[in-house]
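User: Let's play a game. I give you a shape written as tokens, and you guess the letters that built it. Ready? Here's round one.
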């Protein structure tokens, strides 16, 4: 073999080795050439943590913005009794559906309770819903997680197909085991039926499961059925205008977050300020006369 043949042989051997080592995967070839692979193009956009809804049963973090206390929560604290746990704000806020933050229809429904809802940031909207559920729990169960009621009135005493008994309304939002079938709530009757009636370990009485179920029910009402927030069709009688229970709910909504309130017209503020000044002058004059 002369020098030229030797050169041809080595060139052929080198080329064969290079060909055998080359990855025939088109994506790998694009990456080797500095291009962008199909898999890298398919990477989804990063999820917005503010709109992520935790799966039921997942650990719940602290509230993004704690809600103010309702009147009944304040009263319970004054009496030295447990009230609304701030951790429950986090449960609600992290479960708020993205549509509650973006839908103009939801904003319209919320307006009677939060006049500035349409103009709020996502964080402030979530705070409103945390307060809303606190007020609902106050009206429904007096903020008692282990509260339960069995109605005897035939009009409302229905059989719960999950338990096989007349339905009980239980927990902060007064829910029933059959809601696990109707709304996909994670209540475990097979485990709970072996526990005492008011055992806080019962899944239906645990605030996390109860509140998350309540959010599913409200989402069904507003987003799936397109019913108003306040309607006689609501799951909760406390959200049905014209009832005594509805008035009880409205009493718990008086401490709604300040960001919800419309600013007072400057003329009203001026008139009240002038009135207060005149009243103050009258008090001073009366005090001087007494002396």
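Assistant: Ready! My guess for every position:
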């Amino acid at each position: 073999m002369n020098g030229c043949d030797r050169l041809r042989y080595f060139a052929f051997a080198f080329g064969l080795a290079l060909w055998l080592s080359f990855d025939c995967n088109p994506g790998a070839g694009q990456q080797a050439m500095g291009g962008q692979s199909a898999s890298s193009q398919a990477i989804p956009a990063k999820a917005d943590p503010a709109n992520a809804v935790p799966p039921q049963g997942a650990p719940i973090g602290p509230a993004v913005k704690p809600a103010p206390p309702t009147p009944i929560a304040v009263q319970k604290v004054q009496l030295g009794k447990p009230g609304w746990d701030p951790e429950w704000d986090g449960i609600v806020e992290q479960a708020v559906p993205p549509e509650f933050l973006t839908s103009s229809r939801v904003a319209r429904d919320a307006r009677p309770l939060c006049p500035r809802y349409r103009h709020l940031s996502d964080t402030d909207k979530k705070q409103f819903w945390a307060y809303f559920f606190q007020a609902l729990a106050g009206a429904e169960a007096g903020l008692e997680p282990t509260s339960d009621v069995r109605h005897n009135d035939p009009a409302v005493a229905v059989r719960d197909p999950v338990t096989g008994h007349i339905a009980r309304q239980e927990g902060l939002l007064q829910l029933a085991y059959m809601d696990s079938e109707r709304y996909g709530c994670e209540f475990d009757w097979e485990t709970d039926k072996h526990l005492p009636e008011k055992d806080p370990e019962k899944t239906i009485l645990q605030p996390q499961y109860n509140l998350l179920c309540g959010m599913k029910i409200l989402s069904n009402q507003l987003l799936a059925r397109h019913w108003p927030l306040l309607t006689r069709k609501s799951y909760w009688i406390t959200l049905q205008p014209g009832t005594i229970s509805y008035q009880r709910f409205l009493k718990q909504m008086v401490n709604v977050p300040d960001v919800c309130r419309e600013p007072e017209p400057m003329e009203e503020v001026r008139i009240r300020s002038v009135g207060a000044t005149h009243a103050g002058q009258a008090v001073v004059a009366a005090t001087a006369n007494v002396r």
